[in-house]
Specification:
The complex is a heterodimer of chains A (496) and B (239).
Chain A lengths: L4 H6 L10 E7 L6 E8 L5 E9 L3 H5 L8 H5 L7 H15 L7 H33 L10 H7 L1 H22 L8 E2 L2 E2 L5 H11 L2 H17 L2 H6 L6 E6 L11 E5 L5 E6 L8 E4 L8 E4 L9 E2 L2 H7 L6 H12 L11 H21 L18 E8 L2 E9 L5 E7 L1 H4 L1 H15 L7 H13 L6 H4 L6 E6 L5 E7 L4
Parallel strand pairs in A: 6-11
Antiparallel strand pairs in A: 1-2, 1-15, 2-3, 4-5, 6-7, 7-8, 9-10, 12-13, 13-14, 15-16
Helix pairs in contact in A: 4-5, 5-7, 5-9, 5-13, 6-7, 7-8, 7-9, 8-13, 9-13, 11-13, 12-13, 15-16
Chain B lengths: L2 E5 L2 E5 L5 H7 L23 E4 L2 E4 L10 E3 L3 H17 L14 H8 L23 E3 L9 H9 L5 E4 L6 E4 L26 E3 L12 H4 L2 H4 L11
Parallel strand pairs in B: 1-5
Antiparallel strand pairs in B: 1-2, 3-4, 3-5, 6-9, 7-8
Classes of the chains: A alpha+beta (496), B alpha+beta (239).
The complex binds iron/sulfur cluster.
The site of iron/sulfur cluster has 13 residues of chain B, from helix 4.
Amino acid sequence: MTTPHSTIDQLETAENPARLRRVAIEPLTRVEGHGKVTLLLDDENRVRQARLHIVEFRGFEKFIQGRPYWELPVLVQRLCGICPVSHHLAAAKAVDQLVGVDQLPPAAEKIRRLMHLGQHLQSHALHFFHLSSPDLLFGYDDAVAHRNIIGVLAEYPDLAKQGVMLRRFGQEVIRITSGKRVHGTGAIPGGVNKRISRQERDYLAQEYEPILDWARGALALAKKLLFADTENTRNFAAITTNMLSLVRTDGALDLYHGGLRARDPDGATLFDHFDYRNYGDQIHEQVKPWSYMKFPYIRALGENAGAYRVGPLARVNNCDYIDTPLAESARREFRAFARGGAVQSTLAYHWARMIELLYCAERIGMLLNDEALMGSEIHTRGEMRNEGIGVLEAPRGTLFHHYQIDDDGLVTRANLIVSTTNNNRAMNQSIRQVANDLFDGREITEPLLNSIEVAIRAYDPCLSCATHALGKMPLQLELVDANGATRQVLRRDSTE
Amino acid sequence: MLKHFTLDGKRIPFAEGQTIMDAAMAAGEYIPHLCHNPEFAPHGSCRVCTVKLNGRRVAACTAPALDGAEVENDTDELRDERRTLLQLLFIEGNHICPACDKSGNCQLQALAYYCGMTAPEFTHRYPLRPLDASHPDFVIDFNRCILCELCVRASRDADGKSVFAIHGRGIQAHLAIDSPSGKLGDSKLHKEDRAASVCPVGAILPKHTGYAVPIGERLYDRKPISVAGDVSDHRKDSS
Ligand code: SF4
């Protein structure tokens, strides 16, 4: 059962930290997302404090000051090697406002949407097949050497291949629309820099052929794996939170544009179709001394009660419907799992993510049949403004890019709330829930350690290495007693 | 009777008064260069065009061609030296190709590729150089200025204005602007000026536009610099 919030909240800060043993789960990182979990345990191996720390991207907001606004979409996509398109497009949406454009030419918007759908497709496929399926297929306590994509390849070669091919297709969509599979250009102020030719459209349409079936298969597999142990799916790392996402004007799921909708755990609407340019009226960010990452919350509810989740779980919960038939019927089934209110199970992120994967596949198919995609008017201009706020739904959740510029066109102020930041408190809550349930006096083992990772991984946070190291991230876990002496060391390195 | 020298063994004819660079360009041979542009008087400052004339290093853009001379250009030794010079230029300023809107249309980047530079080898200086965006049509990003003086020469010799000059010496050398405030917005630089479109790198760029040419269609995406030539030969189709 979900432990009451107050008990879980107590695990944020222990009363007598000096008398507790410190356990650090520290992945060695490759890129921008550096994550680590610290646990404080008492003499009975019961957890007294659990925290997820992430070294965040705040440096970007500083070093883009003084840069010309038209560089932003290309500059800020370097925030991330995994979902650069999301940063590219969120910045481009903000820059559209700076150049006075509220409505893009139809072809430009469709090309951007196609790029964005390609991004979601490849990111969701990567996360499910490469990173999470080993846990779900083999169990959290499977041998480390086997619990990875190589193990999946050996035992389920067709499945692994579909994962790779789904991702490849998403990357091809990105390449055609932005010039490169990773870190292209594409979006420019007021539109895009490149038309889609008939030849390119036909190429993508041809590659598209098996995609819908594979996406259906992926959703079916996610459900099968999650329902192999329904109770665990319901309860593992489960917490109760508000949900935040964009929805289209008619309440439909929309990943590129819409108004902000927040719902409380009972499903009651907190705000709806809220103009994201005024996000500061609804969302505040709390700073905690122990984390580089801020803790956003819904202003009206306060710092703790106002915590919310974003990403697939929030989006599929929040929208009134999905405007593609297969994903919509999957959404209905998903919502029925809730027993009223929203689906709160952390592991249901995987399910919602695969519903979105199917939605992306369906939507890409529709766009590839849309003649307007190949339109020739691909950018426009208006009167310059000094402020622009671009918000969209990145694979990991709502992403806010906010810029101010001076009259010369140079950035004077930037504020970015990246998807993972929105989930900061929820991820902390989830690992506390797991720690509270599992670290109950027994010896610390690698599977226990992996359970913490499984909880974090469900959110698909952009800790890059934590979630993107082929499920075999190098970890060192140390138990240090109150005198600083190392009592136990558990190592797992990537060469094992 | 036309005179000749050999460039890596090839006979290159030249007329009296031509430099090695002039004669090589006329013969369609590529000698790597940055500060040279045949529209303007040679300057000999970047030293990228250094060749060996009868075994002695000279700047091809300033050295007069000599009858019967042997000139070495495309050799491993000279390519290594040129790469070192380019490496120094890269670390002296802030040349962040992945985010630069001149990428794909930049001579420094294209030449670095041509000379086999794959990563910086020296410690970056990371100088702090604010941009000047005061002009309505152009922005100067001093981080990317390689002090080639092409804008200086173009403004003085083609536009008759002398908007630009190099001030300071050695590591202190920097591009200065002739205007009451020292800002480009106060200067006489006009949209149509030759100085505004001569920069071989991303230091002087038009405002409000960037990345207009898709990846794959930029000047040096299509051909190496030895074939495509200088940026300023392609003023209309490179942004
Ligand atoms: S601004 Fe450009 S043209 Fe002028 S000196 Fe610097 S690099 Fe050369």
